[in-house]
Specification:
With 447 residues, the protein is α+β, with helices and mostly antiparallel strands. It is built from 21 helices and ten strands. It has helices spanning 25-36, 46-52, 68-74, 126-131, 155-161, 170-176, 179-191, 197-206, 215-224, 231-240, 243-247, 249-257, 264-273, 277-280, 283-305, 312-328, 332-343, 356-363, 367-381, 386-399, 409-424; strands at residues 9-11, 41-44, 61-64, 78-81, 87-92, 95-101, 140-143, 149-151, 163-164, 194-195. The strands form two sheets. Strands 1-8-7-2-3-6-5-4 form an eight-stranded mixed beta sheet. The chain has a two-stranded parallel ribbon with strand order 9-10. The two termini are 39 Å apart. Bound molecules: adenosine-5'-triphosphate and magnesium ion. The site of adenosine-5'-triphosphate has 13 residues, from helix 7.
């Protein structure tokens, strides 16, 4: 990439709001240790952006002029990852502080999936490191030595104006790595920023290049759109830019047929965004919210054609999810999770009963997500919440049993007896004896 040396803008400590008290203590340890040993050590990327915006960063990344081998020599809890450009993962319990040596843009070199993947072991200056990043607001550094913010890319100006601007010509940068177009959508939605005109035009022009990106990266990016309570806006932007049509054409067609910018798909996603369940949602639940409207539409149509057919709901879930499964190659856990959640929605049409069938459902590890989907769909549709509240009261009763409520020791005893009875009856734990209905497929959990 064309590279012109320039002086950075320095925003002194007194003129910005990044405080060490908001920086993760382990990230601070890494920064201070490197700095004390005479290396340059900056907080880099999204964490600086988020701290300047007064938001809590998801993770804290460090940039330094220490080489990967030097970093490994300094930290005993360090693992080097990556084959060509080696990143240091400094591990504190479950937390990882990703520490990378300043590097410059990889040399242009075509690969199967675009240019960005050609990771080159090319170390660089802090300025080169800033300029290889995607958007100006993601190219800021926080210096642990002076507590100043260092800006080589006019990120501070764009942060103040709440604009997402590509570093360098977006036509080149999006061709280099088409996933950057999805990242633009994600940041614009999550931060409430506008995408600058040149980047918007470049996405409109190059959106189909997303099909050249590696499927696992695209899949990961799709699920990242659900983080930060902005999935509704993010998927709508994806649709507006034509990226949804490239990635998931059936969903795109459904959006158009169901009102475009006013499609019910956005309402379901907005309901997801508004609820705390979104913070811990599995990939299965995210997928189920994205495809719920399509699933329901298909189910209603198919039920009209063959109302008494068994397994209609499971099959409708499977066929609805076919597209995302095949095109994005989503993990099995996401497919089975979403299939279970969609299929079990029919169970909420029943009145909750104190029987084994219902009890097993309530005990299922994905039950609470299934109920969350039902509850939020009811809310999004503006339905009468009375039936939903009956289920809520039933669940509360099961999870916080009151004396004499039927969920106490007596019922536990009954359950134990029932289980014993099942074993004596010779049916294995997986059921499936003659005359028994097949069990629901059990989705594995995300971990
Ligand atoms: P989030 O809060 O979602 O983690 P982030 O900005 O930290 O957002 P990451 O994907 O964690 O995003 O990446 C960290 C930093 O690495 C980014 O801020 C950006 O500077 C740089 N980066 C990541 N992906 C790319 C890319 N595809 N092209 C250029 N720079 C990138
Ligand atoms: Mg990050």
């Amino acid at each position: 990439m064309f590279f012109k040396r320039s002086m950075p803008i320095i925003r002194e400590r007194a003129k910005h709001c990044v405080s060490r008290s908001n920086i993760d203590s382990d990230a601070l340890k890494v920064l201070r240790r490197l700095s004390d040993l005479g290396y340059t050590a900056y907080l880099v990327g999204g964490s600086v952006r988020d701290l300047l915006l007064g938001r809590t960063p998801k993770d804290f990344d460090v940039g330094t002029n220490a080489s990967p081998t030097e970093i490994r020599g300094i930290f005993r809890n360090c693992f080097l990852i990556g084959r060509r450009f080696r990143l240091a993962h400094i591990v504190f319990g479950k937390k990882v502080i990703e520490t990378s040596t300043f590097r410059r843009s990889p040399d242009e070199q075509d690969t199967e999936y675009g240019l960005y993947q050609s990771e080159d072991n090319t170390f660089g200056t802090p300025e080169e490191d800033a300029k290889r990043r995607d958007f100006t607001v993601n190219g800021l550094f926080y210096d642990i030595k002076t507590f100043a913010v260092i800006d080589y890319v006019d990120g501070l100006r764009d942060l103040d104006k709440r604009v997402l601007r590509s570093i360098g010509d977006p036509n080149v940068r999006f061709r280099e790595d088409p996933v950057r177009m999805m990242r633009a959508v994600r940041f614009a939605a999550r931060l409430g920023f506008t995408i600058d005109r040149a980047s918007r035009k470049a996405i409109q022009k190059h959106h189909a290049d997303i099909l050249n990106a590696s499927p696992p990266r695209v899949c990961e990016e799709v699920y990242r759109l659900f983080i930060g309570n902005a999935s509704s806006t993010a998927f709508r932007l994806l649709w507006e830019f034509g990226l949804l049509n490239d990635l998931l054409p059936n969903l795109d067609a459904f959006v158009r047929a169901s009102g475009g910018a006013k499609s019910i798909v956005w309402k379901y996603l907005a309901a997801f965004d508004s609820d705390p369940v979104s913070e811990t949602a599995t990939t299965g639940l995210r997928t189920a919210f994205l495809y719920y409207a399509m699933f329901k539409d298909r189910l209603v149509r198919e039920a009209k054609q063959s109302p008494s057919e068994k397994g209609l709901s499971l099959r409708a879930a499977q066929s609805t999810l076919d597209e995302i499964t095949n095109r994005l190659r989503i993990p099995k856990v996401a497919f089975f999770g979403a299939q279970f959640l969609l299929d079990t929605q029919r169970r909420f049409n029943e009145i909750p009963r104190r029987d084994t069938h219902t009890f097993r459902f309530v005990q299922h590890e994905s039950f609470l997500e299934s109920f969350a989907l039902y509850r939020l769909v009811c809310a999004a549709e503006g339905a009468d919440m009375a039936h939903c509240n009956t289920w809520q009261a039933f669940i509360d009763d099961k999870t916080n049993p009151r004396p004499g409520s039927g969920a106490g020791p007596k019922q536990r005893q009954e359950r134990r007896e029932h289980r014993e009875g099942r074993r004596r009856g010779g049916r294995g734990r997986r059921g499936g004896g003659h005359g028994t209905a097949p069990r629901q497929p059990q989705p594995p959990t995300d971990s």
